[in-house]
Amino acid sequence: MKKLLASALAVAVLSAAALPGATALAQQATSSVTPIDGIAAVVDEDVILKTELDRAVNNILAQYAGRENQLPPRDVLERQVLERLILVKLQVARAQGTGVRVTDQEVDQAIGGIAAQNRVTPEQLRQQLANEGTSYADFRTSIRDELLIQRLRQRFAQSRVSVSEAEVDAAMSAQANAGVQYHLAHILVALPEGATPEQIATAQRKIEGVKGLLDRGEMDFAAAAVRYSDSPNALEGGDLGWRSNDEIPTAFASMMRSMTPGQVTTPIRGPSGFQLVKLVETRDASQAAPTMVTEYQARHILIRVEDPAEDAKAKAKAETLQARLMGGADFATLAQENSQDQSSAAKGGELGWFTRDQFGPDFGSAVAGLQPGQVSAPVRTPAGYHLVKLEDTRQSDMGDKNRRAQVQETIGRRKMEDEWNRFLREMRGEAFVDVRVGKAAEAAPAPAATPDGPPAPPPGRPHGPPPNRQGG
């Protein structure tokens, strides 16, 4: 069941710019433990309960069953998982504070997509959750939170990330000449904004200590990432997946071309801190699997909102039309009579074939959550309220016409990762966070660097182990 929830959530909730840690967070609901009163952390005006932390930690332990030696000690693992939960709380609060909303109907659609992906009905999925001792309310909350975070990321990308035509031209030229893709993993020792010389020196000693462990063969890279990395993907062994040249930061790209699989870079200072990058393997891009994209064929009815004061009226009209459709009214006829999209109304709302985000992320998310023949609830976009009927889907290999768009998206995703991680660090640094667990360990003075392994993390970082040659 844990595997079912992990794969389903990845399909139903995450978009192309995947949210680090989302699958593990959604899986919190998959482990049943005896409730224990207590607060693990206070995050601004919210709290993380000890029972929430226990569920999340136990889920990680279940994922690593038989490989427990790859995990850090329990107290360190708790701090890593708690940091993820803190970031989720902060992102959800920021999304809600900036007006991002997710309706009950949208949550229902996401859960319906999870059920459909796993070939069960929503009721069967609910029963499976109950059989595992999972609270359905907690599961819905996890889905809602991930949708909120996804939309916050989308807004962030639209406001802060841009890709020039010159960048796309250069990337396409490099891609055509190189033809190599790299499977990478990394370990990050993070630095806060405006790090002091002492913090920089401590972080550098730590990353050098980790490199020493790897060079001496005392620990493999994935285990070291789980134990020592400050990156959100630490619990996944630091795996970054396959990257082409245009997806690799400039600081690493030239190094990758001179490395052989299995090699690890020397410590490199980047915008987020110090990193080690491992080249896992390479492949010829021409031998990679075809780049397939899902295309959608749909109709829509648009009720425009040109004045914010008319929002409620427009939504009410859209809901009335939705009720008529649920009662059996013909979608094309209602579109011809009511849609305020002049380009499609005469065609019964027909939009033809399009890719997921061609009409914007909110519209794309709604379409991706539908099954053929299904009609959405009213979807709010900058243009107004839409009712969308999905007609069909198909998989298409991206031709030359679309490859430019793909390259542009790839560059944007790389920029987004850098900007988003910087934004998370800023948000974390500005928040009031009172950690109530592991107080004694955190109050202890940081040990000095020793030949036996890396020292404690930079001041202010909540996770990162003391020196330990035995691997926990």
Automatic annotation (TrEMBL):
Residues 442-472 are annotated as: Disordered. Residues 1-26 form the signal peptide. Chaperone involved in the correct folding and assembly of outer membrane proteins. Recognizes specific patterns of aromatic residues and the orientation of their side chains, which are found more frequently in integral outer membrane proteins. May act in both early periplasmic and late outer membrane-associated steps of protein maturation. This is Chaperone SurA. Pfam families: Rotamase (PF00639), SurA_N (PF09312). The gene is surA. Keywords: Chaperone, Isomerase, Periplasm, Repeat, Rotamase, Signal. The PPIase activity resides only in the second parvulin domain. The N-terminal region and the C-terminal tail are necessary and sufficient for the chaperone activity of SurA. The PPIase activity is dispensable for SurA to function as a chaperone. The N-terminal region and the C-terminal tail are also required for porin recognition. It is found in: Periplasm. Its EC number is 5.2.1.8. One of its GO terms (molecular function) is peptidyl-prolyl cis-trans isomerase activity. Residues 452-472 have a biased composition (Pro residues). Residues 442-451 have a biased composition (Low complexity). It comes from Lysobacter stagni. It is an enzyme of class 5 (isomerase). Residues 179-281, 293-392 form the PpiC domain. It catalyses: [protein]-peptidylproline (omega=180) = [protein]-peptidylproline (omega=0).
